[in-house]
Amino acid sequence: MKNIFAGVRAKSLSNQKGFTLVEMLVVVAIIAILASVFLVGLSGFRQSAYDARRLSDIQNVQTYLERYYNAHQSYPNVTVWSSKSGGDLPQTLNGVLQADGILSNNQNLPVDPAGGSLANPLYEYCSLSNNQSYVIGVPLSNSASAWKQGLASTPAGCNFSVPCSNQFTTSTPSVYCVQF
Q1: How many domains does the chain have?
Q2: Which of 9, 91, 97, 109 has the fewest CB atoms within 10 Å, counting from its CB?
Q3: DSSP states of the chain as a string?
Q4: Is residue 165 part of a domain?
């Protein structure tokens, strides 16, 4: 028995049109251009979010340090913010606050949302005036309004890896510092 629909089906499939390779490449190129424009515009929002997180982290650490001060009538005399996760040394701020019970053993001081390492610390802490005052330094982007409220220079006795400033400059790296 002969299939009477075989010829019809073959004919209808050959009449269907698809996208050519050139049309597909044009569509992919347009999508890539739109995605790159979107991602470039998004980077400013990401920097603002990082700055807001950093300023919030400073407030959280200030709370921990005030709890330490209430217990000891002085601030910790350490120079390192925090060691890498897994084995904090007692001389780190993180280790001192954990040993004192202000931070639980599984709790750590905040780390920079954009990354960082001990070789290039992004948050820095310095105890001043016989441990009665302290400075915290943190990098901010040029769009942050907090720059105007920060310290104009690094206080004597603080050996930050990057100097404190109250203005953003692209030529000289500096950090936003606050003294409590």
Answers
A1: 1
A2: 9
A3: ---TTHHHHHHHHHH-----HHHHHHHHHHHHHHHHHHHHHHHHHHHHHHHHHHHHHHHHHHHHHHHHHHHHSS----SB----SSS--TTBHHHHHHHTTSS-TT------TT---SSS-SSEEEEETTTTEEEEEE---TT-GGGGGS-SSPPTT---SS-EESS--SSS--EEEEE-
A4: yes
Are 94 and 104 in contact by the 8 Å Cβ rule? The answer is: no
Distance CA 87, CA 85 (A): 6
- The residue range of the domain holding 84 is 19-179
Q: Does 134 reside within a domain?
A: yes
> Does residue 10 form part of some domain?
no
**Ramachandran bin of 101, using left for φ above 0, alpha for ψ from -120 to 50, beta for the remaining angles:** left
- Statement: the pTM of the whole predicted model exceeds 0.70: no
Whether 8 is covered by a domain: the verdict is no
